[in-house]
Design brief:
Length: about 325
Amino acid sequence: MKQSCIFLLTALLCAAQPQLWAQRHHHEHEQPQRSKASPCFDPSDPSEIPLWGGVQPPGAIGEDPCRDIPYLQAFTPETPSREPRPTILIIPGGGYNNLTNEKEQAPVAEYFASTLHITTFVLHYRLVQDDGTYRYPIPMLDGQRAIRLLRARARELQIDPHSIALFGFSAGGHLASTLALHPHQSFGKIPNDLIDSQSAEVNLLGLGYPVISMNPSAVPPSGSYRHLLFGFEGHELNTLEHQLSGEMNINAELPPVFLFESTDDKRISPQNAILFANALQQAHLPVEFHLFPHGEHGSGLSEGIAGEDQWPSMFTAWILQQWPQLRHPRIRRDD
């Protein structure tokens, strides 16, 4: 705890960090790491669940499994539970035009599945192409669909539809916070099946080194900003900059939040996290904020990074407080 900044105790110290970062990184923008391989939907893999089944997703331009088919990937605990359990939906980052594969997907999902004994899902949402295809609002449509799909198939997946958490990293943190803040917004999609009739509300929100603000006067525009809002101009752009800035859209429907960032983040301004934590505190909404003096953007579980490597255990303690039913799982015994 001594190596982190806990918001409720050290708000003044944390609030001083935006100016320091701006001075050091005035010309620095988010530089998403290129994935070694594109995440491609594999219909033969039972752990992969297409968000729209056999129906073409809204706005799809083709049927390329590496580009046009958004899906969930399930990570299950070694020993299944005898009763429905809460679940976490991980939304990896990558600047909205890539997905960070190596550290923010399987390692984190496997950690949650084994530590909390819950089925954990990774969202593979569609990525913005060089010509702007799949820009806003496509990632939001994919994210909402994922939440609704989990609720619609809760019995089959052995999850509690009333206990769904999101955990988003970087650009995935922006997507996760946007979904949590706007559960009733259609993002332009007309409901057309029973899954769309499910609630898109989430019950807990976790964020790691997130993008939060799309307000260029508050935070230097990142790669996430440039990709998600590709081609938007004028009044439409200004409207989206406000609508998609989490710190400017705080509302009472937002669930409890766990948030971590480092002051020396070289890819995303830590001001994103600080603005969000300040806005939550001012609205008297529950937030646990850890601002570490050192960290690495895109590090996932932050293994080997002194200080920031504490966040997984901190999150585990936090979520056990939020969901006490996770403490004593009823394990299914085959014998």
